[in-house]
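Appendix C reproduces, verbatim, an entry submitted by the partner laboratory led by Prof. M.T., so that reviewers can inspect both the input and the predicted structure.
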Amino acid sequence: MRIIDYGESYGRSVTLCAGRYESLHRGHAQIIKKAVEAAKKNGSEVMLMTFDERDNARFGRVILTYPERISAAEKLGVSSVLRIDFTDSFKSVSAEDFLLEISRKLNIAGIFCGYDFRFGKDRCGDAASLKRFCSERNLYFSEIGKIELNGEKISSSSVKNALSAGDIEKANAMLGYAYFISGVVKEGRHDGTAIGFPTANISWPDDKATLKEGVYAARSTIDGKEYAGITNYGPAPTFGFGNVTCETHFKGYVGNLYGRALTLHFDAFLRDIRAFSCIDELKEQLFDDLKKV
């Protein structure tokens, strides 16, 4: 994967996917798929435009971090990335100047975008602007229409709304993949171990979109084998612990995960978190939870 910073020259012929592409949801994947098909015909490579939010708090929490996005885009057939820092200087660039800059610095064969793409200062640029730009330069242009799930537009915002509502299955259906986080397993309170349900505790990434607090069906690959598990995202009221944590018990796994890097995929919301009257009642519920994963 080649990373090209905005304003940097790049001589290879590119079919550009214009947009932010925060989550690479099913709508984004459709745009990239069409671009890959066109690039094979015109002999170019697919370049994905996206923002690098790592040092920019104004974007808030995201579905895919910039490094995750690059990795996922490569699997979809993207060969290069137009990386943009959303600075105050970039924010003030007009739509016309943005198009002139990329036309000077990039060897563009064609541009693909979603029907609702907006760009430039005050979001004045749109798909129609791109179409005129391409037509004037005899470049290929394609605008991909709305992609829906059960009548609802698929967007990064709708995915975040589903995640915050605990509707992980809806979020995953919109994304086309299971929502996930990655992190290093840290030592916890050992409450789970004490009752026969040891957990892998991962700090929730500061830049990743959060879930509704609850118990989820989840899974992770450990030493080349996938293990299903139950994740408690939130407090542990039965043990008098009120802080939000992400703790997962993997069914059938035996071993020490401290210090190991794990990627945790969320598949389903199982139930709300509640305080149990005793440890035996909690264990009975946990055994029931495990039957569902």
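The first helix runs from residue 26 to 42. Additional entries are available on request from the coordinating office.
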